[in-house]
Structure formats: C-alpha cells, structure tokens
Amino acid sequence: MEPLAPKGWKVITPDFLQQQKKDISDEEALKFFNGLQPNWALALSEHAPRRGVVAKLKNYLLGPGGAGGPLRGSLPSVTLLSGPSGEGKSTILRQTVAELLKAQPQIKVFWHDDLETELPMNFVEGLDSAGGPYLIVSDEADLIVQSLHKAAKWLHGANHGHVHFLLSVRSTSWIATNPERLRWRDFTTFNDKDFVVSGLTLEDARELVKAWRKMGDAGLCQLKDRTDDEAARTLVAEAAKVKPGAEGSFLGALLEIREGPEALRARVGALLAILRDREFKPGVSLADAFAYIAAPHDVGILVLTKPVLAQALGCTVQQVGTALLTPLGQEALIAAPGRFITTRHQKIAKAACELLREQFGADMDEVYVDLIRAATEIRQQGPLPEIKEWNRLPAIFAKKRPDFALRLIQAQRQAAPNDKFYLSKHSALLRGAGDKEGAARLFRSYRPLPHNDRAFFFEWASAEGEAGRDAIAAWLTAYSLADAGGRDTIDNTRAKQSLAGLGMAFLKLHEATGDHDYALALGAVGQLGPEIDPSDYKGLGFFQTHRDKAADAGVGKQPAAQAWQAIEHAIKKAWAAREEDLPDIPPASGFKYNQLLKLLGLPQVAPA
C-alpha cells in the first residue's frame, strides 16, 4: 500500500495531472506572463512553453534510456534548480514533474503544497524500501532545508537509495542556508551546478513568441509588428542586459519588451488603486503595506523577511502571510513567498515606489526608517543573519541624500543605543557629510567607555584626526594598540590597521610642526608594519607609502629596536602636545605594548 502524503504535501500522479489540464483564457495567460505565480493548470497549458532546462532536468534524473540517472542510483539524490527570482523556476519545476511522470508513471511524487509545513521524519522513515523510486519535490525549499537535510542524512545512514529530492530555490535564499556547512555531498548524490536558471536562450525565446502569437496583439504587445525571429532576438538581447546571476533577467525581459516602461507603470498604478481601497489592518491599506515590500527591493535590499515586515507594520507574522502576501500574490505583485519577500521584479518595485510617492501620497522615507528600525530591533532580540544587508541601507543613500542617510543611522541607534557598531557608522556618515566635529562628539559623549573594543578607540581616533586634532588621534590610536586598550587580544588585522593609522597621524603631525621625531616615527611604522603579515600585499602598500614619505624627510632604515623606540617617543610627544585633555583616557606615558611587540617580533617589556 502506497503511503499517504503528510499534511501540507500532495501526491502527484498522471491522473492528477490530467485532472489539472483545462482551457486557460488569454487574460489569465497574460497575467502569467506579467508575473503571476503559476498553478498546475497554467504550467501544463500550451500558454507556458517548455523551456530547454525541462528536458535537461528530466534526462539527468532518468539517465540515458531512463535507467542510469540519480533516480536509479544507490544513494539518495538531491537535485537543485536555482536562480534569481523571476526566472520561471516554479513553472519549470511543475513541467519537469509532468515530463518525469509521462516517461515513467511508476515514480511516486510528493509535492510540497503548503510552504508553512515541514517534511516529517516519520513519513520519510515509512517509505517502503522495496517501493519507489520516491521523488520529494519542494519549491522554495530553503524554507524547510533543515528537515530535508535531516531526512537525506537518515536515508543515507539507513542505506535507502530509493528516495530522492528535486528542490527549487532562489540563489540568494540557498546561500543563506549555508550549504557548505551542511555538507550535502557527504551523504547524497548532490547536484547544485547544472541547473542554474538565469537569462534566456534563443530557442526558449522563440517558443515564448509562438505562445504570444496565439494571443494576437494582446500577447505580442510591442513586438506585434516583428517577425517571430526578430521578436525572439529582441527578447534575448533585453535579457542579456542583466548581469548573469542578477535578478530576474527572464521576467525583466518579458516586462520590458512586451509592455514597455509606460505600460508597466500604468498596470502597476491600476493595481495600486485597487489595493488602496482594500484594508490590510485598521487605517492601513494593502497599498500602504505593499510599500514596505517595494521600498527595499527598489534599492537592491532583497532580504526582507516576515518577522521584519511584521515588526515594521506593527502586526503579527501570521497577518503578514494571510492578510498581505496572499492577496498581493494573487495580483502578481510579489514573488513566491519564500524566505525573502520581494516584488516580482525590481522594475515593478521601482514603478510602485514612484507611483506611491507621486500619486498616492506615501511617505517612502518613513517606510525605510520603519524597516531599518524594525530590522535593528529584531537583531537586538536575537540572531538576524540579514542584518548586514540592512546595515547597507544608510550607505545606499549617503551620496545623494546624506541627510536622509543620517536619519536612517539615527533610527538604528535609537533601536540599539549601546551598539558601538552603529556609533562608528554614524560617525563615518557625519564625516562624509562634512560634520567633522559632530563625528568626534559622538565618541566623546559615549559613556561608559568600552574596555574590550580596540576598534572603538581607532574609530574615535579617525574622527579626531579628521577634525584636525592629530595629536589626540595619535594618542587614541596608540591606546587601541596598548595592552590596556582592551581585554581582547590584538589580532593581525587590528595591529595592521591601527599601526597604519598611527603612521598617518605621525605624517600629519610632521607636516604641521616640522618635528623630525615624527618623521622618524613615520619611517619606523613603515619599516616595522610589514613584519606583522608579509603576505598582505595591500597592507604592504600602506606601509611602503609611510616609508616613502619618511624618506622624503631624510629618514632611512633604523635598527628594529631603535625604530620601536622612535614610535614610543613620538606617541608620548603627541600626548604631551594634545590639543585637549580626555580625562577618561590614560596618559600615553604609561602605555605598554607587549601584544604588539610580540606580533612585531620584538622583545617584550617585563612588568614593573
């Protein structure tokens, strides 16, 4: 007796596929080409041509003559169909299943029908070792990667090679699962290289044009006056404008060539008008909520998750799924609800953001502030792997809108007031905006001072140096290198960065005062710095520059011990010449540098 599908899964049989076949209206087909997620009826219809990768996948899984592929192997297999959003993976996956069952109806296929459910281990363990082959198929498989991994590992340990996995994922979502750490190849026949979908072949484009031609002018739109070959080549050329592996060259070409920017904008505007009249929650329309999906996508932030979206909108994760993503998906405005939430394509996001701002009165700046604050708040509560991407948001706006970039980093600092990382980023943005004093003031007002963060003192030194206080900059940089400057051990990176920064302070002090002691110290930094890591060619370049500048001042090579003495002497001289006092920082005369001396290969100083 064949096993029943667990909750959230569906058995796919030739009979099921036959039942799904129906006439698809041109209107429904056009929605599909404009980005609507496919169902079985659409994927199996003549409106959705079979792209070349479908046959390639089928032939790989079945092998030559249907007898030598992974489905007949002795190991469980994992075959990955991957690529950016908007490349047609969901359609390809359904069509591949159909082709497999057409070739070998005895294959038992279980389809992941409800993305909120996992793959139960008791179901996997109950698959008859004498039956099969069984094929477990999941679109947006990153959502259940842990249960898939556990199942595949168990199958290997139980010597069951009769269960196999066909998975579809967005490339970025798969990378986020850390596949190298999961070591799939240790216990499966694993293929994640051969079926990466990105772009459009000429043959696929010709099949698309044929499908559009059947719908007349409404299908061909801007291509209606071209021959099939001309239209296909135009499609391929448009898709090729997108860098391989970047988002949605396939759907992007369809939207750009079939409709053009103005028609796309009009269609998105009409959808927004409908969404404006539909409530997401009291006082918030679906159009208002959609702005929180379109905004990050428009600027290339593709890591919006349900928890961050729920936090920004002030609702539950469940509400995001049922009351927002479901209706937006029905309107072909968002991609399939996987780990990350995006619009169907950046072209849609851009058009939506412009319209929301210009015609619907949305405060898109406030949307970005809400989102970055939400992401930072969630990060304070626990791990958020995507926080690095959210941290890029102020920098995205820094060049053209520095005031708004500052507003974004201020929102992050309000959400994480004690996080020194955001303090440093805030300081850097202030310096970039020309407020050197404000950048230094951030560090001066931060209390209590950290005792385990050398980078904090180095960043503070950079701010003071840019504000023109080079003696203080030298003092603070020296403190970031001193044994007392932090409980943490100085690693090579910190040593190289701070030592190079110390050399820069010495250079500026020498230029300002003409004091030869600073030139000697500059040359000493350039001489000793490479000892930390002779293989770091970039770092060697910085230290070579210091040596060259010192040579211009008449400084040559010094014995190593003498070079170190020159550095220490210049640090103490800078402290004595400090522009202002910093009462919470110890005097440089008492600094010891045994950790740094060890990295430099120099004798350490015995404790007093």
Would you write up a description of this structure?
This protein has 608 residues and is of the alpha/beta class. It contains 30 helices and eight strands. It has a six-stranded mixed sheet with strand order 1-3-4-5-2-6, sandwiched between helices. Strands 7-8 form a two-stranded antiparallel sheet. A hairpin with a 2-residue loop joins strand 7 (279-281) and strand 8 (284-285). The longest helix has 28 residues, at 249-276. It is elongated and about 90 Å long. The N and C termini lie far apart (82 Å). The mean pLDDT is 90.
Give the helices and strands, then pairings.
Elements: E1 9-12, H1 14-20, H2 26-33, H3 40-44, H4 52-62, E2 77-83, H5 89-103, E3 108-112, H6 121-125, E4 134-139, H7 145-157, E5 163-170, H8 171-176, H9 179-182, E6 189-191, H10 202-213, H11 217-220, H12 228-240, H13 249-276, E7 279-281, E8 284-285, H14 286-298, H15 306-313, H16 317-330, H17 346-358, H18 364-381, H19 387-390, H20 393-398, H21 402-415, H22 420-432, H23 436-444, H24 454-466, H25 470-481, H26 492-513, H27 516-528, H28 537-552, H29 560-576, H30 594-600
Parallel strand pairs: 2-5, 2-6, 3-4, 4-5
Antiparallel strand pairs: 1-3, 7-8
Helix pairs in contact: 4-5, 10-12, 12-13, 13-17, 14-17, 14-18, 15-16, 15-18, 18-21, 21-22, 22-23, 22-24, 23-24, 24-25, 24-26, 25-26, 25-29, 26-27, 26-28, 27-28, 27-29
Characterize the main sheet.
6 strands, mixed
Give the integer mean of the pLDDT values. Answer: 90
From the alpha-carbon coordinates, what is the Rg to the nearest angstrom? 31 Å
The fraction of residues assigned to DSSP E strands is 5-15%
Percent of residues in helices: 55-70%
Helix/strand-derived category reads alpha/beta
Anisotropy-based shape: elongated
What are the segments in which pLDDT stays under 50 over at least 5 consecutive residues?
A: none
Task: Output the strand order for the largest sheet.
Answer: 1-3-4-5-2-6
N-to-C span? 82 Å
Annotation field: number of helices: 30
Extended strand count: 8
